[in-house]
């Protein structure tokens, strides 16, 4: 058995460089002067705009094995497009929950009121895809029935698949914003790309693909906003905070499950504000500004988007039949 010598751990002096004050914690023990660029919080002293920054003090490459990140993102997106679009029109029958959501989309074309438990945004997008496909709203999407020639169901499915395709580049960019290496971020994006459930849900006229797309957008904007925490109230800080609020409004308006994304951002915001409250060097005025900014961006903006979707929903569906019997008497 060979023997080895374990190198002792190195403890750097956390005092400012050049400080002559005594180290009270260690008494007279002399600690090594921290090297240039070292910090107990290395993120605060760096440019958070760089998408290739890690928790390392060494300079990082802008290319991976000679390939730029833009090329990697394009290649991953093309792979995702193949998995979502290949022979997407092979099954020409009304499949799975297309019987429900395709019918809801047709109601928007007929402007006929209907009752459903979920918010209307994703269903209005289904209606938009049917409108762009040239559907006249007469097909009732009976489960198992073959699509007639005048219903361009392939275009409708492709429109829905675009949200599933967008998951791949957003997954990659989110991982990069969280300082994962290029290879790890690409691997995570490939996991999302080849996930069987995502592939299946993205190939039919369902609400799940828009829901996942808006959820991924919220996660991406949250990671981008997280990268700007060392530069509060800067232009990019405001940009990503407002985009985060918009994405929360979209995901909450698509399906009730989107409230989990809202809860995630809310939990992060509570923790962040609590850490600021414990920071004795932050003035109360600055702290209140942080509260106000998040209140407007993460509460007011999502609520406005949510209410606007319902307003648009009721403006379009102005024809009422027996389906309105599910609604309260005051509504009727």
TrEMBL record:
Keywords (A to Z) from UniProt: Glycosyltransferase, Transferase
EC? 2.4.1.109
Presence of keyword Glycosyltransferase: yes
> Which domain of life does the UniProt lineage start with?
Eukaryota
The protein in question is named: Protein O-mannosyltransferase 2
Gene name of this polypeptide? PMT2_11
